[in-house]
Amino acid sequence: MSDAAAELLVVALAALGCGLAGLGVPALIRALPEPPAPASAADPPADPPADPAAGAATGTLVGAEAPHGPTAGSGPASVARPAEPPKPLYVDLAARPHLGPWVALVSAMAGGLVARAVLGDGLTEDTAWALAYALPVVPLCVALAYVDGHTRLLPSRLVLPATGALVLLALGEWAVTGEHDAVLRAGVGLLVARSLYWLLWAVHSAGMGFGDVRLAALLGLVLGRLGVAELVVGVYAGFLVFGLPGLLLALVRRDRALLRAAYPFGPFMVVGALIGVLTGPAVIDALLR
To answer: Rounded to an integer, what distance in angstroms lies between the CA atom of residue 61 and that of residue 53?
Structure first.
């Protein structure tokens, strides 16, 4: 079998494997434990004060939830924020019609593209290890993007075990091959991406959830293992893909409020990572010319 035929076979098997794994995404989502429901203003307090005057001493009525934001004595009267709609249940998300085939199709296409990009230097031991990092993450990232897009949640039950498994894979590669450059690059990618997102979360936690920080570690590890160019472009592209459409939409509609609206960031991180895998080396080469 020629090298070209072998690479084509690997790409086809990668697409098939990711597609078959995508068929299991609905069951994976269905098995997720539901997050605790947020406290409702209509719920009675767990331990109301016995003396009605105790509520007045703190500026609140007995049985009423403490106000958020400015109070009556600190400035203009505050306007109650509209209640955020309840998050869809995972079981309901998993029951969406034709979810399995759609996820399988997207996973198969992404898996084939990733395999083709990784095999750009031919089928070698290094690229085989790189595929072992990248391909299992493809259907998982499709699942995370779907869940985050509907709930603005990135379940740690999915992200953390996957990250731990890839760390073990990196240690296994180091033990088997004795080569440490690629493994160290993966570790640096994890630390750099997670540190960047952690800093953004610490500075403005209202605009970014900690689930994004966890996902950044997972994506950073994979992108770092594939290469420095993939890491740089993959991390930056997530912000670019997230920011440009919203900015253009705000300009077209002439509505600055769209720039302050909250959107799930996980799907854009996943798309950015895919862009980094597919175009990273070419983009960096073009920039350095």
So the answer is: 9
Stated pTM of the model: 0.81
Let me know: does 216 contact 193? Beta carbons within 8 Å.
Answer: yes
pLDDT, one tens digit per residue, over 199-236 is: 999 987 666 789 999 999 999 999 999 999 999 999 99
Give the separation between CA 216 and CA 143, rounded to whole angstroms: 15
Q: Identify the CA nearest to 137 among candidates 267, 268, 22.
A: 22
CB of 96 closer than 8 Å to CB of 140: no
**Spatial separation of the C-alpha atoms in residues 146 and 99, rounded to whole Å:** 10
- The token pair at 149 is 């897009």
Residue spans of beta strands (DSSP E) within 118-222: none
Distance CA 53, CA 47 (A): 15
Residues 235 and 95: their CA atoms lie apart, in Å, by: 32
CA dist., res. 107 & res. 139, Å (int): 5
